[in-house]
Predict the 3D structure of the following.
Amino acid sequence: MKRLVMAAIALMFSIAATYAQGQINFATKIGTNVNFKFLMPDGRPATSPPAAAGMQLDNGAGAFTLIPGSLTTFRSGAAAGYVTPITVTIPGHDIGSTARVRVVSFLGGATQADYDAALAKGNVRFTSAIITPPLGGGTVTPPNLDGLTDAPEPSTIAFGLLGAAALLIRRRK
């Protein structure tokens, strides 16, 4: 009897720990509020294969790691370019807290090994701007990816800084 009670208490704690984790709805097409279509380098909508997508979590100081269980495929047909929706649990973040996350797309299947291979080969094709949504979970509906946008490419930033420097130099003359 004592073992049964201890097992029940352990089960309750594990359930509480599971529900305490914050979650987000990883979907890029929800009515008119969320509408973010991924494109391949040639301008076609992303489809699976060859592309997949996942979410990364900022672990501090801009160090992003892939969130376990966040990899998903792309839809096909009229919905090509949009991810297959999933609910992603954000480790180490409670319901109601916020997390700095971003979305990545890459060439390869939707497994951790495929993502690692794509990263090693430089086949990560898209990285979004960082968003900081409040997390749901349990009895709180997980939020959508509102505010998902392209991140400026480093070459775009460098070109902008070069232009600003040129304007400053010209103004001094």
